[in-house]
């Protein structure tokens, strides 16, 4: 495995962003303590889990990078925003 700028841009950095987003979602659920927040966390966890599997393939098996895991992270960002918005409602 050769670490270059393309690998960092397509795989490593987005994988860390996904893990950070998952951590923030879990932290928010423990803080809010509502069923809706936990439902958002479960959905976000599933989406990020799928994206992390794709990032694993990109990083360790030298698979050709795809936009799909990045789009999944963007969708989970929107869901995280909805989770935070549901706290105020």
Question: What is the element layout, followed by pairings?
Answer:
Blueprint: H1 5-32, H2 35-60, H3 68-88
Helix pairs in contact: 1-2, 1-3, 2-3
Tell me how many strands there are. 0
Computed over alpha carbons, the radius of gyration is: 14 Å
β-strand percent reads: under 5%
**Low-pLDDT runs:** none
Mean pLDDT score: 89
Counting DSSP H or I runs of 4 or more residues, the number of helices is 3
Range of helix content: over 70%
Give the biggest sheet: none
| Separation, N- and C-terminal Cα atoms | 47 Å
User: Shape from CA axes?
Assistant: elongated
Q: Give the topology string: H per helix, E per strand.
A: HHH
The secondary-structure class comes to mainly alpha
Kindly describe this structure.
The chain has 89 residues and is mainly α. The chain has three helices and no strands. Helix content is 84%, strand content 0%. The longest helix has 28 residues, at 5-32. The termini are far apart. The mean pLDDT is 89.
Descriptive labels:
single chain; 89 residues; mainly alpha; 3 helices
Brief rundown of the structure:
The chain is mainly α.
């Amino acid at each position: 495995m050769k670490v270059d700028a393309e690998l960092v841009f397509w795989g490593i950095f987005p994988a860390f962003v996904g893990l950070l987003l998952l951590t923030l979602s879990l932290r928010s659920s423990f803080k809010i303590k509502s069923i809706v927040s936990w439902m958002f966390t479960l959905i976000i966890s599933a989406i990020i889990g799928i994206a992390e599997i794709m990032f694993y393939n990109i990083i360790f098996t030298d698979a050709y990078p795809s936009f799909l895991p990045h789009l999944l992270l963007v969708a989970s960002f929107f869901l995280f925003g909805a989770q935070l918005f549901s706290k105020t409602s």
